[in-house]
Amino acid sequence: MKKMAVLDLGTNTFHLHIAYVKETDFETVFKMQIPVKLGEGGINQGYIGEEPYKRGIAAMNDFSVELKNYQVEIIRAFATSAIRDASNGLNFLEEVKRNTQIEIGTITGEQEALFICEGVRHSLPFSTDPKLIMDIGGGSVEFIIANQTTVFWKQSFRLGAARLIEKYHRQDPMGEEECTGLYEHLRLQLTPLWEALLQFPVTDLVGSAGSFESVVELIGDLLQKPAQKFSSKSHLIELDDFFQIHPILLQSTTAERKKMQGLVSFRVEMMVAASCLIDVVLKHARIRRLIASEYSLKEGVFFSEKN
């Protein structure tokens, strides 16, 4: 067995996942996540601000300590939207390498989508019928239409939650005009998705970890409904339950969301925009079943290494 680490350097949160990679699966050894808010103040201007930059470097230094403690043999580190789109992103990668000797690779949105698809496919049963997979990041959102063997269509959109809140969530709570503008923007920008769904119709939306796990937890907290298992690594979200909690989130203040038991602190700011994204896709794509997968890019990298 190989001891391997995957570092997913997202726009909002940096993730470290260390695992033994087996022939057919992986065994988690250690997980760590650090909220860096790398897109704060500059994501739509294409640069990493001074304070977010420092938080990112500090997080990588912390990860380096854990990698040495666990004597990791293989390291796979990936920079996603905020870093790959930033004018000073290369400087960030070079400074991390000087400090820690960690080589960070940048991956395209389409490569990111393929890793996400690989992870999600291992978390729940897929058949010949295509499903729509959705991963909400801080800088980008990935969509994949796939069945158990084939990826029919995939695309990454620069519609991550951090980008959206900088443009459309400046009032607390979100203002009516901000909300209208956000929805109009999403419907227009997601036109390629709507066109793909005409060619490859789906009834299931599978959300990849992150915000979708928060939806599961929020339903438990706000509606007092226990999570319903769909598979060992996924949960079924009743559409009516989502449509009950969405307006609560939409009308909530930051202070109110901080008190929600089902919402971890580093998703407090992003969750309203994420919920709006889910709402738009559910309604426009006429989704009949919503599933939250526990797996995402990191797990997809493990399974890709195994193959």
What does this structure look like?
It is a single chain. With 307 residues, the protein is α/β, with parallel strands linked by helices. The protein folds into 2 domains: 2-106, ATPase, nucleotide binding domain (Nucleotidyltransferase, domain 5); 110-298, 2-Layer Sandwich (Nucleotidyltransferase, domain 5). The chain is built from 12 helices and 12 strands. The longest helix has 20 residues, at 50-69. The two termini are 14 Å apart.
Which labels suit this protein?
single chain, 307 residues, alpha/beta, Nucleotidyltransferase, domain 5, 2 domains, seven-stranded mixed beta sheet, five-stranded mixed beta sheet, 12 helices, 12 strands, 44% helix, globular
What is the topology?
Blueprint: E1 2-9, E2 13-21, E3 26-35, H1 50-69, E4 74-79, H2 81-84, H3 89-100, E5 104-106, H4 109-121, E6 131-136, E7 141-146, E8 151-157, H5 161-168, H6 176-189, H7 191-199, E9 204-208, H8 210-222, E10 228-231, E11 234-237, H9 239-250, H10 254-258, H11 271-284, E12 289-293, H12 297-306
Parallel strand pairs: 1-4, 4-5, 6-9, 9-12
Antiparallel strand pairs: 1-2, 2-3, 6-7, 7-8, 10-11, 11-12
Shape field: globular
- Enumerate how many helices there are, as a single number: 12
* Separation of the first and last Cα atoms: 14 Å
Average of the residue pLDDT scores: 93
Biggest pleated-sheet summary: 7 strands, mixed
| CATH-defined architecture of the largest domain | 2-Layer Sandwich
Low-confidence stretches: none
Give, in order, the helices and strands.
EEEHEHHEHEEEHHHEHEEHHHEH
Strand content: 15-25%
What value does the Rg take, in angstroms? 19 Å
Structural class: alpha/beta
**CATH homologous superfamily placement of the largest domain:** Exopolyphosphatase. Domain 2
